[in-house]
Structure formats: structure tokens, C-alpha cells
Amino acid sequence: MKFQIEDVTVYFPYDHIYPEQYSYMIELKRALDAKGHCLLEMPTGTGKTIALLSLITSYSLSKPQSPIKLIYCTRTVHEMEKTLAELKLLHNYQIKHLGPQARILAIGLSSRKNLCVNPTVLAAENRDSVDAGCRKLTASWVRAMAAENPNVPTCQFFENYEKAASAAVLPPGVYTLQDLRAFGKEKGWCPYFLARHMVQFANVVVYSYQYLLDPKVAGIISKEMQKESVVVFDEAHNIDNVCIEALSVSVRRQTLEGATRNLNRISQEIDRFKATDASRLRSEYNRLVEGLALRGNLPITDTWLSNPALPDDILKEAVPGNIRRAEHFLHVLRRLVQYLRGRLETDNVEKESPVGFVASISSHAGIDQKTLKFCYDRLHSLMLTLEITDTDEFLHIQTICDFATLIGTYARGFSIIIEPFDERMPHIPDPVLQLSCHDASLAIKPVFDRFQSVVITSGTLSPIDLYPRLLNFHPVVSRSFTMSLTRDCICPMVLTRGSDQLPVSTKFDMRSDPGVVRNYGKLLLEMVSVVPDGIVCFFVSYSYMDGIINTWNDSGILKEIMQHKLVFIETQDVVETTLALDNYRRACDCGRGAVFFSVARGKVAEGIDFDRHYGRLVIMFGVPFQYTLSKILLARLEYLRDTFQIKEGDFLTFDALEASCSMCRSSYPFKG
């Protein structure tokens, strides 16, 4: 259908539109007209994604003299593919009505693991190994050697892409990750580097939150994005946690042991270069003397991760003299690793500010704040000079340099917390040193400052007035929309007593009570006997889920449940959980019915849809409050109270309700 919102003709690819979708578009247009940021909440299942895409693309079509770019951020690859599928439907509808003038280029961008088509590289187990496998075939020095020695392996897809030069472009259209892989195979080009190149020309780019919020990734992928862009963070109810994780670092004993191995390997490489190509180390030293941390514009294949600090906080000056020579820099890192190893040898929980921690490093290890700031860039430069391609082997020393650069850069909004063991398992020594970011606004501030409009939207943003305080910004529009229902299709219930009238609760002092566990089991047994198809159960933690399932098994309740439906369980292993989910869906499809046991804040609670017959009933065994004795959480609560005047109780309730809503959101049969 086609309709007007003020001066914009909106192209909407469906015959009917919900009232809340129309209202949503009106408020979104207000924000675009004002060139400001906005917060919009609309229940999941009401067509929020297509409303966003229709309004923003139609808005751009109505202003051909100043078109805007849409940067659409999702949490998962699954959500990215769904968004691109909706956009493809919309694009076809717009071309049908407007002809060729409606053509756009829209692409999804993900990691090499999701876009690579080279079978040799794809054989690697994880993302870091795939990245390293790609570098081993495409790094500039590897290709230079291959030009002289044909026995040196390279990637034929990348070589073909390079040979095509300016001809290597994507024609207009909407490309999912599968479409990019198919196009790459057809042309013989590398789809990953083709997509990276086309991002700057695309009208719509769909990618992960981290590509804008994590400075290490954003510094490479998103640095060319123009200011006249509209950024959308979809399903952004937990965006504050994403921002905090982007600037937090954990160091364990395994990290320090791995970093020591990395330093020994780097030392061997330096000795080898001194014997065979000392001029390379000399030229790097001269470049650093001149104040150039990195050598000019690197080839796209040589770029590693960017600096972990935010762009405005990176020093634009010469690298300190005491780390310009490679061997001197290694000595500094060895002293830092030794210092951190000593700090982990503690029997008590310790908490320090970055200022105090840096002062301690300076007095005990002789490393000043400025030297710490440059650790990451100096490591990057050295690894390029030494032509190291297996970057997945150097993640530990990279973590140490991440940590050093961040504590050398930031004095506020962070804490260093050292814990000798997990308080929930005090008998197992597992010391960890954590640089914990408490201020979510740090990571997202460059996005608000740089782009003309940022849209934060989700099915659940309540209380909506807390987000501007958490993220420290001023939205020009902040609205919540309710859902219009033609029939009663949701029946929420809160159960406080079991069938024997005993109270039930997952409060810590009650959750293991045999009466509570028995009543929860009887509740589920009664439900599986009357509810058809799929039932999804969420527990507050993995440990609680394991304990309650074992008790049900011993008492025979689990056996009775399985007489009605099959049972599948989420584990902390991704492969096992994926297999369990697949079999759960098959059991629902064939009519056998199934129960899926999952965990709040787990892998399944975010980003997996249990729509239609896959989620006829959701049972939440308790409200997933965070572990309130966590030292990191306590430090963050203190910071939020002192800086933003957010009360501890308000934040904990807000956080728990967000986690609860994200679980239910994937299962409600809204309007379907």
C-alpha cells in the first residue's frame, strides 16, 4: 500500500497496516526531520522492522538531492538475515511502483567466518582461526612472496578480486549473507572483502552492534561512514550491557601464561629478523621516531583490530622513546605481565580506580601512564613489522595490551576488581583481574556525536526514561506504543503458591526447598498434559536449572513429563544447544510436542523465535535478577548512583524486567 505522511510518500509492502505502525512512522519522521536522536518502543510482533525500513527508505527517496544512508544494527546474524529479507520484499515493492529510480544497494556485513567461500580457510574451528587463516593467504607480504615463489599458497578468490580492481562491484540490489557468498562464488571474488569495499557505497548497511560500538572493530569497519546517516539499533533493550562489554577486559592466569608464550615467540621472531633483515626493524624505529605509530594507509588485508580506546581519546603524538625499539617494548610487556601475575596472587577481593592502579604499576614495574596508552598501537606495529599472520595465536598478549591502553587512557567510569575465586564456588581457586567499565555512555557517545540521527528501538524499553540517563543523551522523540489486538491471545499469570497452597519462589533462601521444587514440577506436569505443541521453560541460572532437573529426575517427575512431551535442554555448548533446538522444532512439527529447558540471559533467551506452535506456553521459574553480591555489579551500582543518580533498586528491577521480557518476547504469538 502507498500513503502520505506529510511530505513523504511511504511505500509499505503489505495490504494492511496496524495503527501502532502508522503512529510509529509519524514519530520516526519527526526525529528525522529534527536531525536528532530518538527512543521508540513498540511490542514485538507488531511489524516494527518493516515500519522502520519503509519510512526511512521512503524518506530517502523523497529527498533525492540529499539522500541518507541507513546503518541498521542487529544483535545476531539471524536477526540480520531477517531484516535483509524484509528489505528485499520492500525493495521489490518500491521498484514495482517507481521503476529503476527506486533501486538501492543494501548489504549485510559479517565476519569472515560467515562470508568466506575458501574451503581451506573455512575448515578452521572458530572465528579467530578463520581470520588468521585468511591473513595467512592474503597478507601483503605473503602475496609478495607468492609473486616470486608460486609454491606459496594464496587465496584465489582474493587474487581474482584484486585483479578485477575497479570492476569488482556489486550491482544494485539487496544482498543477504547467502546472496553475497553465491555472488562471490559465481564471480570467483572474495565476498568478505567485496562487502567491506562496498559498505561505503551502499544505501543500506546491516551489521552487528559491535561494528559501531566496539572501538576495536568500529575503527576499521565504520570509520568511513558519512555523518548524514541514520543509525538504527534494533532490539536495543540491552544496549547498555553491549556498550559496557565493549570496554571491559578480564585477565586470568591462563591469559598471563599465554601472553608469556606470545612474548617468547615474538622475541624469537625479532632475533630472526635481526639476523636476516635488520633493516626492517631499523625502518620501523625511524618511523616511530618521526611520530608515526602505523605506516600510512595499510592494505585492507593487513589491518588488524583497531585501538581499544575511543577515537577522541587516542593520543595523536609520537610513541614514547622507551618502547620504540622492539626489544625494549618486549621488556616493558614482560614487566607488566609479571606485575599482573603478582596482583593475582591474593587471598582477598581488591578494588582500585584506574588512577591508583596506574600509580601502582609505575612504582612497582616502572611503566608510566603514557607508555601504557601506546601499548596496543605499538604491538600492532611490531606484529606488522615481523609479518605475523597467525594472529589467533596472539590473543593473550593482545588482551594484555587492550588492558594497558584502557587503564592508561581512562580515569573515570572504570574499576579494577581482583577476585581470588568465584564467590559461588569459593573452594575452587580461580583468580581474575577485571577492568570493568561502569559507564555505558562512553562507548556510544562517538555514535551520538557523529551521526545526525540515532534510533534506539525495541519491543521493551520500559521504563523508557532510564535510557537517556544510562546512555547520557537527549532524545528529540521518546515514545512508547501499545498493541492493538482483535482478540485476546495473551494470558499472563503470576503464580505464588503451588497446588498444595505452599508458597513458591526462586529467592535464594527458598529455591532449593523440596516443596518448592516439587510444586514447580507438578505445575509443569499439569501444563504438558493440556497444552499442545511446544512449551519453553526459563530458569534463572544454569546451576539452578541443573539442580532442579536432577531433583525432578530422582523423584520421577521428569519421567512423567516425558510421557506427554519430549524434553530438550540448553547447555553452555553452542553445538549441543543448536542440535537440541533443531530437534525441539522437529518434535513440534511432527505433532509429538516438546519442552525446552532454557536459561535467562542464556543463548536461547536472546534472538531465537519460538513463534506459532513452537511456543504455545512460556513458564518462567523466577525473575532473573543479577547476582547482587557480584563485586562488578556493586561497583557499577555505586557509579550509577553517584554519577547519574540512579537508585540501586531501580536499576536492578529494570535489568531483571528487561531480561524477563526478552525471554517472553521470543515466544508470544503476537498477531500471528
UniProtKB/TrEMBL annotation:
Domain of life: Eukaryota
SMART domains named among the record's database cross-references: DEXDc2, HELICc2
The keyword DNA repair appears for this protein: yes
Residue ranges constituting the Helicase ATP-binding domain according to the UniProt record: 7-285
Annotated Gene Ontology cellular component terms: nucleus
CC cofactor: [4Fe-4S] cluster
GO biological process, alphabetically ordered: nucleotide-excision repair
Keywords, sorted A to Z: 4Fe-4S, ATP-binding, DNA damage, DNA repair, DNA-binding, Helicase, Hydrolase, Iron, Iron-sulfur, Isomerase, Metal-binding, Nucleotide-binding, Nucleus
PROSITE patterns for this protein: DEAH_ATP_HELICASE, HELICASE_ATP_BIND_2
Subcellular location: Nucleus
GO molecular function terms noted in the UniProt entry: 4 iron, 4 sulfur cluster binding; 5'-3' DNA helicase activity; ATP binding; DNA binding; hydrolase activity, acting on acid anhydrides, in phosphorus-containing anhydrides; metal ion binding
Reactions performed catalytically: ATP + H2O = ADP + phosphate + H(+)
Family: Belongs to the helicase family. RAD3/XPD subfamily.
Name assigned to this protein: DNA 5'-3' helicase
Annotated organism of origin: Theobroma cacao (Cacao)
Lineage of producing organism: Eukaryota, Viridiplantae, Streptophyta, Embryophyta, Tracheophyta
